[in-house]
Design goal:
Blueprint (H helix, E strand, L loop, with lengths): L11 E4 L2 E4 L1 H7 L14 H12 L7 H8 L7
Length: 77
């Protein structure tokens, strides 16, 4: 797994000591993880499915796994 070097204010910001990831970070990562992220750019129906998978103990962990399940997903700008 390749680690992405995070840049504050571009990829995330801190709020009350917690990391809040930006939509730009999520798009660069390439998949919805189902963690109910505040700035998730993926469509609600995709978010609902990834949340369900996460709660079932089968979270999406890679861009490849995401694309195999959902194909090419249009994201909100």
């Amino acid at each position: 797994m390749t680690r992405i070097k995070l840049k504050e204010h571009q990829d995330y910001y801190l709020e009350n000591g917690l990391y809040v990831f930006t939509a730009a970070y999520h798009l660069r990562r390439g998949y919805c993880c189902g963690s109910r992220c505040r700035h998730c750019p993926y469509p609600p129906e995709v978010q609902e499915e990834t949340i369900k998978l996460r709660l079932e103990g089968r979270p999406i962990r890679t861009k490849e796994e995401f694309e195999a399940r959902f194909g090419e997903v249009l994201v909100k700008p």
